[in-house]
Amino acid sequence: MNLCWNEIKKKSHNIRARLEALSDHSGKLQLSLQEIIDWLTVKDEELSEQLPFTGDISAVQRYNEFHSTFMEDVKTKGPFILATLESAQAFLSQHPLEETEESTPDKDMSPKQRIQNLSRFIWKQANVSSEMWEKLSARCIDRHRHIGRTMERLLELQNAMEGLSLALDQGEAVRDSWEPVGDLFIDSLQEHIDATKVFKDELGAVKDGMKIANDLAHQLAISDVHLSTENAHRLEEVTSRWKILQTSIEERLKQLQDAHHDFGPGSQHFLSTSVQIPWERAISPNKVPYYINHQGQTTCWDHPKMTELYLSLAALNNIKFSAYRTAMKLRRVQKALRLDLLSINSASDIFSQYKLQQSDQPIEVLEIIQCLTAMYDHLEHERGIIVNVPLSVDMCLNWL
Q1: Which residue, among 212, 204, 213, has the nearest Cα to 167 in the 3D structure?
Q2: Which phi and psi angles does 100 have, rounded to 5°?
Q3: pTM of the model as a whole
């Protein structure tokens, strides 16, 4: 009897020793797991507090150094975390879970139930620690990549803004060198129009650069990186300068084209001097001129000088023979229009130049004006005399 009792006491002592050793080991394991959970929670909060960071190269460089230190700290802690998780895995392999539900602590709880509760608690801690460790590691890698992309975009944005600023400086210098349209020679208007169009096309690269810069700023914004005040102001300044330069080019081109239309070789503006006050020369929609008398508030199709010429022809009506009468009238018109000084060869050359010798196509008013202007300019140069070209052209056009 005594032998059996001693055997029971021995076994009980062994079980108690095993439970105490197990409790001591599991307690240390629980403390280590809880320490890991608390540390990972703090690090996760630190990582979350770092965003958003300022979109400035120097600030991102400082943040990159800080994050590198942060990652090194996480990396240093890694072996301890992995070793603790392995210990938890070893513990659970030795004491696998058999019950799905946790038992309520009780004084009468069996040793097996206590071990199951310890295993369940360690299993939960190990799962939480493992998930938090994987999450933090992934976030660190993502943040490192995010910093790298942000730095690349900021460098691209900085280079783009520097290139744009230089291109705008050059463009503004060209704009500032423009002479007022009113000071330009009429003959040079088309040349200036062409030069302005070429200049506009050359600035296409600036337009593309502006799009790239704005796209980069947008990409940074959607990735929760806000440009620094300096960079935002610089981008806004470049954008504003570009819009002002664009507006200046469009206005310049319009002014040149309007001036070319109103005063260029294809216009009739130079003929406005063919009449004197109170008369004014105007142009109908079909390009045919008419004349306004502001004093009498009347309009007519005949040039005032042609009206005077037609009235003077009436004095020739007393010539007896019609052939002589018609010849005298034509001679008077010829002299009034200065056509008596024009040779047949000169006229033929002018007609050949404007391809009017054998043309079945209708002639536009502007084509007639150009031909007559060339003819009277040639006459003035050939004869060495002064010819009132606007008056002669306008009267000849009116006669035709």
Answers
A1: 204
A2: -80, -30
A3: 0.60
Which residue type sits at 310? Answer: Y
Q: Facing residues of 293 across strands?
A: 279, 298
Q: Which helix (H) or strand (E) holds 378?
A: helix 365-383
Residues in CB range of 372: below 8 A, 6 or more apart: 392, 393, 396, 397
Cis peptide, bond prior to residue 52, ω within 30 of zero: yes
What's the pLDDT tens digit per position in 24-41? 556 788 888 889 899 999
Choose from 47-51, 113-117, 190-194, 241-245 the range with maximum mean pLDDT. 241-245
Three-state SS at 169: helix
Report d(CA 213, CA 168) in Å as an integer. Answer: 14
Tell me the residue ranges of DSSP E strands in the chain: 54-55, 226-227, 279-283, 289-293, 298-300
**DSSP per-residue letters across 250-262:** HHHHHHHHHHHHH
- Pairing mode of beta strands 279-283, 289-293: antiparallel
